[in-house]
Specification:
Number of helices: 12
CATH superfamily of the largest domain: Neutral Protease Domain 2
Largest sheet: 8 strands, mixed
CATH class of the largest domain: Mainly Alpha
Radius of gyration: 32 Å
Shape: elongated
Number of strands: 37
Distance between the termini: 33 Å
Number of domains: 4
CATH topology of the largest domain: Neutral Protease, domain 2
Amino acid sequence: MRTFLPYLFFVLSITAFGQDFNETLNTIREAEAKAALNQMFYRANLNTGNYDLKYHRLELNVDPSVSFISGDVTTYFEAKEALTEITFDLADNMTVSQVLHNGNTLSYTQNSDDELVITLPAVQNAGVLDSLTISYSGNPISSGFGSFEQTTHNGDPIIWTLSEPYGAKGWWPCKQDLIDKIDSVDVYLTTPQFNPSNEAYVAVSNGLEISQTTNGSDKTTRYKHRHPIPAYLIAIAVTNYEVYSHTVSNNGNPFDIVNYVFPENLASAQASTPVTLDIMNIFSDLFEEYPFADEKYGHAQFGWGGGMEHTTVSFMGNFSRNLIAHELAHQWFGNKITCGSWKDIWLNEGFATYLSGIIIDELDGNDAFRTWKQQRTNSITSAPDGAVYLSDTDTLTVGRIFSGRLSYNKGAMVLHMLRKKLGDTEFFEGLQTYLVDEDHAYDYAKTADFINIIETTSGQDLTEFFSDWLYNEGYPSYTINCTQQSPTEIDIEISQTQSHASVSFFEAPVPIRLIGTEGETLDLVLDNTTNNQVFNESINFIVDTVIFDPEADLISRNNTVSLSINEEAFNNKLLIYPSPVSETLNIKKPDFLQVEEVRVYNALGQLLYNSEWTSTIDTTPFSTGLLFVQLQTNEGIINKSVLKN
């Protein structure tokens, strides 16, 4: 046996398009990481777990020229056990002036643990609904990472908030955890009517704008949001925005995409945001109707380079298509269903990253999508370790939670590999079922919840898949050894090594492309379940080239491919190939066989060709259909058939 063609899988070239995506993703990751940084060691307050939030009414007063907030927050809550007091999260530099309950003042304390503890007038039994109103004010501490920022753009004042994951308590009394969503919210924003340049202020928040009311030199804008929402996704922004809209037809139930843009960026934004309609329609067709179609979707420009997916209105540092796609994807995966812990951050970020890749596939085509996938894999395999699912100690490090390599890129590629394993129909049906599941829709989900739904809808046991690719670390390196036994048979041996000891073998469907001497192509997907596994595959041409993972569907690195021919088998067989044939038909015979005459007949028995021994026949003049090749030899007459294209 001799090797006549070694083939090394080449790395796909990195295009300027791909570099743009990487830069955008890094900006997104940095923005989301910064939002978490100053609050990373905060954990859900055990003292707020004994009641269920039903409603908040935020009546807030802000002036974009001044770093200060005041207001009243009315909360409806249901006791989960008998309560004598109730605790809210509120930064200790914020000052509470009074708490009212049915018109009566209640006693309260603020402590250094950023808690507001209110004594109730009587025991509130489990299942009982009650309400109270907190009046407060203060100068929210600016960390430089968001939460509450008072600054300028182009010399014009602006206030905006960014509370992920635990920054909400820095500017309003709330319950901030990944356990209890607020069922319903109204936000009343009172601001000056005009900025110092006499330009109108525009106030932005979650949900549908209901009204604007003027009162002297001030204006109050009311927003109504009637879907469950975690505290960190409630947001406000006020500046001299220019406002314009796109309308989504939504199968006869239209809603608006409202864009709030700095005046100095209006023209460029108007050129960039219309693609949001295309992205919205693609996501709606793949998954379900936009989850907040009864209210709005929107973009509000703010002072960071990245973005933040506040429910119904993403805050945007720019209007690149990649950022638009990423933040819109979060409205389904992150807002409608929110990750139930920081261990499960990939349910937000891996999903949004993969949906951005889907947009590249849909709008730019397969070549661009292949490059995108290869770049994700290049990032993932730039280090030998790292799991998508976080350990307890991982959640103590903001850089690990918001790891572009793992939470974003590997999370996205694990989803893509799941898609290839299940097929498009079962994959998208599984995601659709996940989004409407009554235990998780407009609520929280953890990784185990997602896996359970996907296994149920697909009917497959995916334990090994998720163990290898999600919970454990590293990636495989493949060695593909191909031996063609005849023009109709090839053996493919698949071996692998692992970059990390946590996985002894990565199970995956392995794509292989075989290319023949005349350009024939056969794509195979081999279910690789054991190391050194050999697959015997049927083929109808002589293989010239083998390509491993031609569409960059696998997380892997440092792969090699070899191709050889079993000369002994070939030399002792009469071979007539290829079939089907378009032009040249080849005849290869063993040395002991002497051929005196070659004839070719069509299916009607008509003689098309006749000659002495020849190793090639030009079939171009022949009509399509079945051809019969007859050889007059020293061993007698031999008949073979081939198909003519």
